[in-house]
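FAQ: What does the model actually see?

It sees only this:
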Amino acid sequence: MATAPIEPPQRLVSSLGGDQDGPVRSWLEGLPTLVQQRLDAWELTLERVHAPGGRSSLVAFVRQQDGTPAALKLPVPGRASAQEGAALTVWDGWGAVRLLRSDDASGALLLERLRASVSLRSLPEAKALLEAAGTVRRLWVPPGEGHAFATLAGRTEEAAEALRSAGAAAPAAGPLVDEAVELRRTLPAASEERFLLHGAFRQGKVLAGERTPWLAIGPAPVVGERAYDLAGLVLDRFEDLVAGSGAAAAARRRVAKLADSLDVDRDRLRGWTLYRAVCAGIRESATGDRQRGELLLEFAAWL
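And it is asked to produce this:
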C-alpha cells in the first residue's frame, strides 16, 4: 500500500487547470483518490509518480504483489486515449508496451515498465528515424472484425472544421489552409487501407524496453492508411531541418526516404504531412506559440 502522498505532476495540473469542463476539473481534483483506489484494488505498491509526466494522464511507477515493476496510467476521461487499452490489447506487446490489466470504470491501465527517461529522441536523428520506422511498421495490423476504433475520415472531419474556422483568423495562411482542407477531403476517400494506426506516433512516443529495445506508448488509435501515421514522423524534429541549410529540399528528401523505406506512396505521405503540419501550425499560432506555428506553416509550404 502507498504511504507517500499522491500529488498530480505540475505539468498535468497546468495543462488541465484552466479547463472549464466540469468532469475534467473534477477528475483532476479526485485523482489522488483514484490512484489510491487502483493501488488497493490491484495490490500495487507505489514507488513514485512520474514527473514531469504528460499533459493528459498521470503515470505512477509501481510494484506488483510479486515485486514485478509496472506503470499505472490514469488518462483524462473522454480524450483520445480512451481506446488506448483496446489498441494495446490488439498489439499484445508487438511493437508497443504490453497491457497487464485495465479498469473500464476509471480508464486505468497497468502497463509493463519501460525506461521512461530514454526515448528515440535520445538517439542521433538518422538512427532515431530508422528505429522509429521499424517500430511503427509493427503496429500496422488489421483492427479486427467489429472494432470500435475511430476511422481516419471521422477523426479528421472535426479537425478540418476547426481548421477552417482558425484559418479565417489567419488570412495569410489562407492558401495553405485551403489546400490542407482539400487534402483532408480527398485523401481518406482515395485509400482502401484499413490498418490500426498509433495515431500520435513520434520519436518521443517510443521508449526503451527490456524484452525488446524499443516499444511505442501512448497511442490515440485510429483506423486508416499508414501514410497518416508516418506523417507524424516526417514532422518529428522539424526544427532541426528548418535550422539547417537547404531546408526545403531536406524536408522533401525526408518524405521520399520514409515513404520508400516503408513502401508508402510518396504523394500520399506528402499530402498527409502537409495537412498535419498546417493543422499543427494553425493550432500553435492560435494558442500562443506563434513562432512555432509559423515554422510549421513554412515547413508545410516547402512540401
